[in-house]
Amino acid sequence: GQNIDQPTEMTATEGAIVQINCTYQTSGFNGLFWYQQHAGEAPTFLSYNVLDGLEEKGRFSSFLSRSKGYSYLLLKELQMKDSASYLCAVREGRGGGNKLTFGTGTQLKVEL
Amino acid sequence: DTEVTQTPKHLVMGMTNKKSLKCEQHMGHRAMYWYKQKAKKPPELMFVYSYEKLSINESVPSRFSPECPNSSLLNLHLHALQPEDSALYLCASSQDVGVTYEQYFGPGTRLTVT
Under an 8 A CB cutoff, do B100 and A48 touch? Predict the structure, then answer.
């Protein structure tokens, strides 16, 4: 089984930087994804890490430490439209399917 | 076309009804998924289809019956549901299951069981 923890809520200021942490315990780790989900909408893919280190994609970066069971999503130059739920999802290396288990999500509120 | 479409957007059904949810993608993806999402909760995997064959069933009750008629379509047949089955049902697809491709999600069907 898997245990994935994220903070429930975070608040940040427009233009600032925010870091959303995710810790996980899993057997057969095979990758970690970050998704963004606006209220009432489908999750959209942000980033993916399978090796240790930092992946950068524009204003979004994601970091992974497999030995620590830890990842974070870094959002720079925050915009109001970044207010959303951010979901950490761990892929279990299990034959027959690309199985993702999602964390409970972090609700980010960006304020002026 | 990087879109996954789902119909209907909203569905209200009684506990004795039979209905179906539909999902379609034209990205040539060979893996398709059904997730259930309750309010303020993360999506929970229900089923995975790989090359039109069911590869994962996460111990879902038999009142939910998936079907993959072809590589572009995925259905979820509903029968004798309970009020606690009310949720957002999300369909997703990915290029394959053997390697870690991102999943593309549809907008979901919001189901209410009365």
Answer: yes
